[in-house]
Amino acid sequence: MQDMAIHPVDWLVILPVVLPLLGAALLLMLREAKEAQYWMALGTVAVLLLGDIALATRIAEQGPVSMTMGNWLPPFGISFTADLVGAVFALAAAGVTLLVLVYLRLDMPDRARRDGVYPLVLLLLAGVSGSFLTGDLFNLYVWFEVMLIASLGLMVLGGRNSQLDATVKYGFLNFFATTIFLLSLGLTYGTLGTLNMADIVAKAPAADPAVMASIAALLLLAFGMKAAAFPVNAWLPASYHAPPAAVSALMAGLLTKVGVYALLRAMTMLLPASREVLEPVLVVVALGTLILGPLGAIAETNLRRALGFLVIGGIGATVTGIALNNEAGLAGAATYVLHAMLTITGLYLVAGLIEAMTGETDTRRMGGLYAAASLPSVLFFVLMLAVAGVPPFLGFWPKLLLVEGGIAGWAPNWDGWALALWVGVLVNALLTLIAGSRLWGHIFWRAGHESAENEAPNPDLRRLDRRATWLGLAPTAVLTLAVFLLGVWPEPLLGFGKQAAAGLLQSADYVAATGVAGGEP
Amino acid sequence: MDHLVALLAGIFLTAAIYLLLSRSLIRMLLGLVLLGNGVNLVILVSGRLGRIVPPIVPEGAKVPMAGAANPLPQALILTAIVIGFAMFAFLLVLAYRAYQSLDADDTDKMRVAEPRNAPKPPMSY
Fold first, then answer.
1. Is A164 in contact with B28 (Cβ distance < 8 A)?
2. Residues 6+ apart with CB under 8 A from B64
3. How high is the mean pLDDT of chain B?
């Protein structure tokens, strides 16, 4: 047993999980009171956001914070260890969820509210926050499953045929991925005798490198599948466009990013020696994802399916950072995750507004929207440039860091892999720009439906009413504003990236915070 | 004993992968169940088998007796079984509902979300 008292502020580590779980349970009991449900869900996430801000501030000042359940002496209890990467990602997740919740009121049919859409959102947030903050691999598996079951519920709510079809594919493939993760957990426990992340950092170097490399390969498969990295990305464009726009925004913004976070944590911090063995695989995965994502978006006519391919392209950028494994590269990966959370969620929300205004999901039949609604067109344009990585928007800085990292890895000894990676990032930016500007052109710029003869104005456009403007357009505008502000004032973002990369590369602080291997608790 | 259980786990995983490669949803579901059970066997065997002393600390002592069984894999497996069963139940209902609505349990015929003859991208711009 541990005798020392826990500093009151350290209870914040567990708050991002406890609060949404309690909130979800409470909301389930109140499922008849639809109005109260909505405000309570908003209130829960708002309090959670404040808690996350406090946690991130404390960690930025004093380094990682850890807490072990049941007051056990680590590595025996389940540890929750928050370092800067996890805390800031959890903060961004809570902020994004708050905005999507506002939008959700507009987007969900009345039946879905009775069927528990708000408890499911809170449950999803609990899973996401838990994944970002936990310091135990098995616990990470549990949070993955919490997240998976909540997202399955959200995806199928409404029960349209396309949703059922999408959920079948999403459910089967993701459950397979988490089971593979469980398999690698079993092997990790058999080899190292521990599942505590800090303890793994301490014990992995002494283990048989061949065994550790196979475990790392299994983890790469499992997390790569969760993150929708090439070549195991097929489930994402098959499923993310089926549910209502707010739900797909939440999923695209949060779920794949958890996969990337797990990959970052496992490859860079837990098993750095095995990452080196797997480096060629990581490079191929990164390049494939970087190039094929935006190419898929160019070839797609369904708006949200095209956005799904852009999500995949972004995953490639983060895997690039993991493959480079130097300070700039990892800073690029960490900041890219943050950027993708904000930008991709915003893009899906605008896509929802576009679908509401045109009544179509096919970009070929959407034309002429600029005349009807100029603000959504500006938002879409800004977010599209941000995804492509055009300055002065948020997406520029992560890509700059990645290219810097690539050049830093390439320059000393003309390493061909690093060269391929940073050229790949640039090609990805160009292709994404082509895909995004084509989408913008087809939806907003062209006068009417696509055909050679008919360029007559689109007669089917509907303006957003007052309610849709406040509930739909306002949260999207807030996200876009954040993307713009962080783009013109990138100091905090770059500072975070640098500190995050240092924390991942030198895990001594993390291990010491957990209190294993003789570190000061 | 360890080797035999490891072999059994291997057989489970092989059968699971074979079933998962099928296009029929029910077979895939059975494949996932087998996969989960095979993985649970892996966890069990990774905690070492063949010890029959219960992992209970005798009165007055501070540690369990020598040769005590390892309780941690059992706790892990119990969690994994519960989660796996919940997920299985959900996917079974989902597959049945999909069968009712889409009239297909063959994944090749479930092409509502991803139409088979997807249109070509616009050629303008």
1. no
2. B53, B55, B56, B57, B58
3. 88
Q: Is A362 helix (H, G, I), strand (E, B) or coil?
A: strand
Query: Minimum mean pLDDT among A77-81, A83-87, A427-431, A489-493: which range?
Result: A77-81
3-state DSSP assignment of residue A483:
helix
Does residue A65 have a pLDDT over 90?
Answer: no
Count of CB contacts below 8 A, A vs B?
123
Distance CA A330, CA A322 (A): 6
Judge contact between A339 and A440, C-beta under 8 A. no
Cβ-defined contact of A149 to B90 (cutoff 8 Å): yes
* Confidence (pLDDT) at B125: 58
Nearest to B121 among A148, A183, A298 (CB): A298
For residue B94, give the nearest of A171, A241, A301 by CB distance: A171
Q: Which of A138, A175, A187 lies at the smallest CB-CB distance from B42? A: A187
Domain-wise residue ranges, chain B = 2-51+67-102
| Tens-digit pLDDT profile for residues A142-175 | 999 999 999 999 999 888 899 999 999 999 999 9
Domain boundaries B2-51+67-102, corresponding CATH code? 1.10.287
Q: Residue B76: list chain A partners with CB under 8 A.
A: 138, 185-186, 189
Contact between A59 and A83 (Cβ < 8 Å): yes
Please tell me the distance from the alpha carbon of residue A315 to that of residue A232, in angstroms, as a whole number.
12
Lowest mean pLDDT segment, chosen from A214-223, A394-403, A458-467, B80-89 = A458-467
CB A261 within 8 A of CB A337: yes
Q: Which residues pair with A67 in a beta bridge?
A: A80
Closest CB to A164: pick one of B45, B87, B101: B101
Give helix A34-62 / helix A84-107 axis angle, nearest 10°. Answer: 160
pLDDT at A6: 64
Confirm or reject contact between A148 and chain B (CB < 8 A): yes
Q: Where are the domains of chain A?
A: 10-513
Q: What share of chain A is helix, strand, coil (3-state, %, to 5)?
A: 75, 0, 20
CA A229: distance to chain centroid? 13
Global pTM value: 0.93
Per the CB < 8 Å rule, is B121 touching A242?
Answer: no
* Res A520: pLDDT: 39
Does pLDDT of B89 surpass 50? yes
Q: State whether B110 and A300 contact (CB < 8 Å).
A: no
Q: Do A171 and B90 touch (CB under 8 A)?
A: yes
In the structure, what pLDDT confidence band is assigned to residue A338 with cuts at 50, 70 and 90? very high
| Structure-block tokens of residue A147 | 């997240």
Please check whether residue A302 is in contact with residue A232, taking contact to mean a CB–CB distance below 8 angstroms: no
Stretch among A287-296, B4-13, B113-122 having the lowest mean pLDDT? B113-122
pLDDT, residue A455, reads 62
Residue carrying the six token digits 């092989």: B14
DSSP annotation of A58 reads: H
Which structure tokens are listed for A144? 């993955």
Q: How far is A108 from chain B (nearest CA, A)?
A: 19
Instruction: Reduce the DSSP state of residue A270 to 3 states and report it.
Output: helix
Q: Is the CB of residue B97 less than 8 Å away from at least one CB of chain A? A: yes
Alpha-helical runs (H) found in A157-301: 161-192, 197-203, 209-227, 235-239, 245-264, 272-277, 279-298
**Angle formed at CA A269 by CA A264 and CA A275, multiple of 5 degrees:** 75
